[in-house]
Records
---
Amino acid sequence: MKKTHIILLVVLAIAIGVIISTISDSSTYANFSEAMNNPGKEYHVVGVLNREKDMEYDPQKNANLFTFYMIDNNGKEAKVFFNGTKPQDFERSEQIVLTGKYIDDGFYADKILMKCPSKYNDPNNNGFTEVKANS
Amino acid sequence: MEINYIGELLWPGKLGNLFIISSFVSAIVASLAYYFKAQNPREQSWQKIARSSFYLHTFSVVGIIATLFYLILNHRFEYHYVWQHSNSELPIRYMLSCFWEGQEGSFLLWSFWHVVLGLILMKRSGDWEAPVMTVFSLVQVFLASMLLGIWLFNYKIGSNPFTLLREHPDFVNMPFTKMPNYLENLDGRGLNPLLQNYWMTIHPPTLFLGFASTLVPFAFAIAALWKGKYTEWLKPTLPWAFFSVMILGTGILMGGAWAYEALSFGGFWAWDPVENASLVPWLTLVGAAHVMLIQKNKGGSLPTTFFLTLITFIFILYSTFLTRSGVLGETSVHSFTDMGMSGQLLVYLLFFVFLSFFLVVKNLKKMPKQDNEDNLWSREFWMFIGALVLFISSFQITVTTSIPVINKVLGTNFAPPLNPIDHYNSWQVPFAIIIALLIAVGQFFKYKKTDPKEFVRKITLSLAISLFGSVAIAAALQILNLNYVLLLLSSLFAVIANADYMLRVLKGKIRLAGASIAHIGFGMILLGALISTSKQEVISRNTSGIDITSLGEKFSNNDNIMLNLNDTLRMGDYFVTYTGKRKEGVNIYYEVQYFTKQKDGSYKYEFTLNPLVQTNPRMGNVAEPDTRHFLHKDIYTHITYADLEQVEEKDKNEYLEAKEHKIQIGDTIFASNSIMVLKEITSQIDREKYNLKETDIAVQANIILYDILNNTYKANPIFAVKENFVTPIPFEVEELGLKISFNKVDPETGDLHFSVSEKRGNRSEFIIMKAIVFPFINILWIGCILLIIGTVLAIVHRIKISK
């Protein structure tokens, strides 16, 4: 076997590895029901903030805990715990993408991505802001 | 009815549009004329037409820019672009930034650099002029079309920077468009304050010059395939390829520096799709440039050389498509929204993909074959492997970044990896290890054949030093992850081996040492990135507040520290005090002083950091970091939560919303400045004082309050029922700014209901801050500078020897 062939095979193997790893590392967009049925598994859940219910953030007590209620795209609601500070302008968000998992009493988010309406339509920014939990 | 608008200046718009049309038409003419000249080299007349058209094109592009700049400088807000990106208060130094803030402006910037490079090539590329300039002009046709803003069969082509505000689709039926004097009080909406930063005045022009410069090798490669000159194109292309490596690299690094200095990502690289989109072509470009070197020195795989050169420019187009078509959506917070040009961008991309593919396939058989296989002990073999690794690395980044595109094409519903940084690192760290190793040993290999014994003899010293060095560093910094230790070793090896090569083999001759210096720089970038990110430490652990371990393991970490105004808390090796805030324009600066504790127990003032929150009218509130730079570490801080309002003195006496408490006798209630204990309830009340009749029911609570200094106060709120109406008589403790009300007695549970409200002034002001130490991040920045200097030296040397 020539060296070129060996190299080619190696490259091919890595390329397949890359594709498989991308698929296996990628997560899925889900709704709360799915997340509740598989507690502990991580999902992306898209939804909106429930403005009827209280958001809780009391930095005097705990600067790293923020809770709120989100309604997913199927209309199901869940309490969300976020290990971090309350994102600025969270009230104004019109869409939220959560990354995290469901455990016992609620959805524990590692990351909140929120879309805020700009006062004007800004072509330079698609309006999303990302907030990460403490690692 | 025709409205006569007052104060509009319409001639520049008309002039600008004239320039746009002429730039488009002249680019078409230039590309056709150059095409015919390339097909019939003896026809001098084609060349004349081609050159004059390209001059006209240049003049038009500069004309568009000048016109637009004139409008911005004169605050002509009747033009949508000017209104959208500037306002009358914008300082002159940011006028340039608002020029390229919008998509149209950034296309213009790109176009401008193409024209500049095109003019140089026109003069200097000799026989290559016609075919190379055909490609250049063709690219310019596409770029010029991005500014046309005309409708063709219900499809909008381009977005015109000279559209009037009142004619812009977003505003077309708004009431102000019917008012003749709408300009009187109109101000622009201003440049995004986030971009009002010196990095933003230098980063985009550099990055776009980098983008534009990749067209030169691409155009030469296309010309070579077209004319069947498969090897001759390498000599003129090589310096350009390395120029492009240098400029594009600088542009990307400036983006990283901007992110680190002005954005609160907490680092210089986040594997965001927009960042990836510019890194990917740089990786393939570095591969291409190195394969060209092999090719020129010794001959190697021509198809690989063409492939890497062509794919670099295609990746540039693909990255433009990704970031501007809106396809990235929520996967990147930095991408542009779709301006209706995604179709056009796709056509642009596919055109050059098919052109490249067609030409490569057509010429593949005719290319001279490599006579024999590369020797395992040759420099070219390992350079080739390096280029392949770079390509695979770019492939991995592209696949993951393209998840939204894959979803669109295949109709799947993949979401990006939950932890993108780990995902990318799991692949990119091993690639980086291989690349660093190759960089270390590369120059010790000779072209064609190396004597293994001599190679080993030369490399042993560097390898030994690096082994000892990396073990020492790993032990000192507690780097235990195997991958990281290997990367530490290989990048240190790259630095030391290249330094050794420079000193011992090149005997310190700087003009020959470009490659070595650039490689040392690259090694240092890897080393600095590895140490500063893997050993970054969040020092803002919460040392105040309530322990939250009660919430279980779900919340094990506190990365944010809460600082009350004028309180001092320990943070890492420092003691920090939040001393106040000040407002400057849209920025609110929070002053945090740092002290160290001396042996005698006193505190020594060290420095002050002012992280800020920008109340950005376009993007909401944005936190910007402030960083203290030391030689061996950076302390990087940013605000994660803060009161933005300035509390007025008069509002301090206002009572805030009351909090309810249900307690029993002997229980305690906490307020922010005191604790209160309910001692007893009694019916012995001074009824006259409270205007209570004998028939009214009334109970009084006797409460004792203790403040922080252990002073005691009394409070006696009364629960009363007057003529069948519940009428609590609240009690105010003036000294503490508290109002306590006794609202209910629950006969079933025996609970007593109180509500306590506090004055606004009681709540002391606070900020919540995150602080990260990045150790040895300066190695990274020094590496960046060396990489640039080394590449410049190498280019200068190349140009000299090619003469």
---
Amino acid sequence: MKKINLLFHLTLLLGLLFTACEEDDTQLIPDEDSEKITSNITENTTWTSGKVYVLGGRITVLDGVTLTIEPGTIIKGEAGTQANSTALLIARGGKLVAEGTAEKPIIFTSVADEIQPEDITAGNFESPNLDADINGLWGGVILLGKAPISASNESGDVSETQIEGIPTSDQNGLYGGNEAEDNSGILKYISIRHGGTNIGAGNEINGLTLGGVGSGTVIENIEIVANQDDGIEFFGGTVNVKNLVSWNVGDDGVDTDQSWGGTLTNFIVVTPAGHCFELDGPEGSMEAGHIIQNGTIIASEGTRISQDLINVDDNSIVGLKNLFFTGISEGQQINRVTAAGVTFEGIELDVTEEDLAGHVNGDVPTGVSAVSSPTVGADTSVFGWTWASKAGKF
Amino acid sequence: MRYLFSIFFSFITLLSVAQNGKIRGTIVDDKTGETLVGVAVLVKGTTTGTASDLDGQFTLDVAEGSYDLQISYISFQTLTVGDVQVKAGEITLLDNLRMKESTLELGEVVVSAEVIRTTEAALNTIKKQSASILDGISSEKIRLTGDNTAVEAARRVTGVSIEGGKYVYVRGLGDRYSKTTLNGMDIPGLDPDRNSLQMDIFPTNLMNNMMVSKNFTADMPADFTGGLMNVETKDFPEDKIVSVSLSTSFNPDMHLNSDFLTYTGSPTDFLGFDNGTRGLPSGADQRVIPTPISGHSQQEVVDFVRSFNPELAASRKTSLPNYSASFSLGNQISLNGDKKLGYIFSVSYKSEYTWYDNIVYGEYQRYIDPDLYEMRYATLQNGEMGEQNVLVGLLGGVAIKTTFSKLRLTAMRLQNGESRAGKFEIDNDGQAVGQSGYFATSDNLEYNQRSLSNVLLNGVHVFKNSGWEIDWRLSPTFSTSDDPDIRKTAFTHSSNGSSFNAGAGGNPTRIWRSLGELNAIAKLDVTKKYTLNDREAKLKFGVSHTYKYRDYEILLFDIQFFGGQSWPDPDPSTVLNPENIYPNRPNSIYYQSGNIYPNPNAYRSNVNNTGIYISNEFELFPKLKTIVGLRAENYVQKHTGRDQRYASGDTKNGQNLDNEKVLGSFDLFPSVNLVFSLTDDQNLRASYARTIARPSFKELSFAQIIDPVSNRIFNGSFFTYPGWDGNLTETRIDNFDVRWELFMKSGQILSMSAFYKKFDNPIELVRIPEQQTSTEYQPRNVGNGRLYGVELEFRKDLDFISPAWSHFNLNGNFTFVESLIDMTEIEFKSRKSYEKTGETIKDTRQMAGQAPYVINGGVSYNHYESGFDAGLFYNVKGPTLSIVGAGLFPDIFIKPFHSLNFSLNKKIGESKNTTIDFKVSNILNARTESYYQSYHAENKPYSQMSPGRKFSLGVSYRF
């Protein structure tokens, strides 16, 4: 047995030597109109319309560098999990200028998605081969900025911390600062799909992660489909987001942490597997609140049932306004109405009067009511370009 | 194996036909305790005679009868041993013949054979005379006590603490500053990341002695600071050994427990290795593995998923009691002329069941609010875990010697397999910083198999009476440590059912880890004895070279779901049922690779360490022995590895090391030891030495190693953070010792020491503060450190109370240490920012790994004439900082473990060939605990488990 073991290890050693030199490229490459990106973006770069860009790893747009993505461009992440996950990371000081249009949106998806630029030109924005609940095929888009965050890391009360989803060994994952008006670029008409692969328990990549992103950044008309983790997650910052769809995500529809100080206006959350809203409070002494308004939430459909309608912590600071919850199942609740910093205004639940109390953990606060037809909610007319809309989800 | 046995048995048979009897003895210098070479031994009134060999040993073949031996040597008084009884076919042992230097009035010393047996052991003289502070236990003593393994024998050495029933530490300094060697060679243990060798594998009947040095002399490797323990195996057993021992132990909390957790494993698990059942499925190490999106066919994906073992659940089975068996054999044979052949062989087998029914792992945080003192939890895990451990040991050796030369070859093979199965509940609090909040239950299956194969070739040559001696050693060791197919399956439970959630309990994962290490040492020591000012002096010099090579790799796979998930009955045992495998919806399971090529979680490292030394031991003035030495070591560690960024294709910003030097220095290690003999039995010692502690292979790497049970992640030091530049360097230590010691008859001792150690760039395990979601650590150089300590040590017979107490012996060692680390600016600031109301943060703190006190005490009763020995031993270490926190994350301490153990050995039968032993360990039923500590807050668990009380019964028979 000694011999066998020794031999085994010798062969293992040899094997290692050889595999190091071996190149095995059976990975699916869509076609000749694609470009594989394997290293960080260190100078201003434009990804042009009509092409497919393949993310070969975690690609970072470095401080001081702008990545421009033209309308109709498709970005596909290679498969992988944990250390092997792909993502587009915009480091602090870097900029992403990705201005799609309703006619030519920019699509982030997996290499497994057979969607091609021609499909976009033809107005077919949905995936030709992947169902709208297939997730975890790649990572996601992470935007980091220098706006204030309420974090308490070892330096106590300040500055910067590491974004979840990126190993701390990568310094480009740091975010936060004191520039409330920081500008991380422009994101318009972007659909992010099938991502959210995990890098370890409790450590995952959201569809769109916004860490310390400042109010100088423009983010509107964004769709997240089938992300394995949260649809959109805010870590502090001051950025405002308008016209958002979060559909079939594996965890929370909208997640906020570290005293995000912006406003989310006009959005639709459809059947996340976690909470529809997971809204946390400050983690440091900086205290800012955010406003979430004019939204429609479909909390269940068939076997897809979300957890809490709203989940807040005791120290959360959130103004919730004009939200319409429909598709409410038994057991789904507004969890915690005692948090002093959380206000409810025009929150309408599509349930009967007598059932209303069962959907609130605690006394039903003023501002929360049962309705049979809504008087509040999202203006869905702006979402015609989304896959969710084309799939008839609202 | 059977073949081997038959060879050895035929040896024994051959020997037993001899009709003569034998007298075998060892001759030592009464003053120094050292053996004497070339001493003439004559059977009085006959022409039969011989001379002692280089080990001071001799053998005489004589017919049955009673003899007087005359032992003479130049400048020593002639020693006559009277009335030596010899029986046919038996060996009469005189292993303690002490010769006194001749004085002016030449005379003869006459003693009886009976007196020889009770003379003070040479070891005690060696201790008294030794240049370094030395303690130990000799084979003679072990023969009297009846201890079975080295670890039991080590308990009798004062100042030694036993950890985990197998590791031996000195003075409360942790593994980083301790070292164990086998036959003087620095060989890796079964756990290659430890400096210490486990001691429960050496049968005492094949052990010559075990010595502990508490300070450095130039002939030792420079990388120890607390203590060096050396185990020397026998080369020429004094008499024939054929012995068998069996033992069993029962832990009422753990054994015959029907809740015990296990899993199927492989049919060869009982031999300590996996037969391949847990091997990596073929194709899994490819860059692209079959997935629904890889371009492989559906059948290929299905086949690939099915090629993984579908067992993911821990299952319950009744645990058995522990049992072990060993067989050992040894003898020496006289060949033609003055040649002797010695051999030893042993095989041992051990099977242990460990069951923890309430393991706790906690992650706690501090509040930033200075008035909130209590800590809050981020994650709390509770669970049960069953472990089955098998250890197979083979040890063999042959040696041949003439009067002036000796050549020996020893070989050792250890095979160890540990299978673990656990079930845990994981409660994560979303209100804690960086946490998302979830509840999950996990099933964990693990297997760790380790092996060690070591060969030692050793030659000793003495140049007649010239005083020159050459000792050379070559020792290659090959070791492996593999964790094939670590499985973790954690369902996340929520109000609307259970599923696998990447952002909560995580997707099911499987990990393969493998480690191979080669360690080759060559060493040459030359000794010259001479006289200086008419007093004995000794010059020693030598060279050594160590080459180490390690190859390490981790491969990881995640279970993914192509589409949604639905688990109406969340049961890990059904997760990989065919109906859940791709393309069967809704679960549609496939595997995704977590591996990048080249793998950032793989490395190859090597070390070349060349040492050269010279030391001189002399008495410039009477009664003042001085040993000065200088050692030089040229150490170069090279590393091949890369970080994730490089591996992901970012060759510009990523880091890649291709056999690059990551640690390298040429160091001088001076040492001065002064021994002043106040009286014949009192010494005053003072010493200074410089030593070193170097980071390990794992510490100097980009590896990120997760413990799937606790979810904690070890990070290599190469990753940089604010306040950490990624350059881990060695620690240089200045050691100062003073000691007064009093030696009394039959090994009794009283000593008091004071010591001071200064640490330049000590390495400690630090919690990475930037990582708030997962619990991650990294070894770093923290600020400089120093420690002051006092030590009181005694071993005393209680005959002074009354003769009735003369068989009682009390021993104790008390060490008290004040250790201080000067915090780095960043550590001080981060502690300061979390300063609580009323708390004053100082810029110094306790050193990690150093206990503030260590108490060892034991009382034993020995009645050697009737073969009875019993002892009660107690050991505790003060609260020891284990992982350095700061800011949000509190410090982690190891709680004192009050270890109280009882052992009893009784030899029975007419010739006392049978020994029965009975032991109770952990009488106080102490728990193994470490905890988070914060100002004015209740301590919170970091980890907790109960080893329980254990009763063992063993019998050994010597043929």
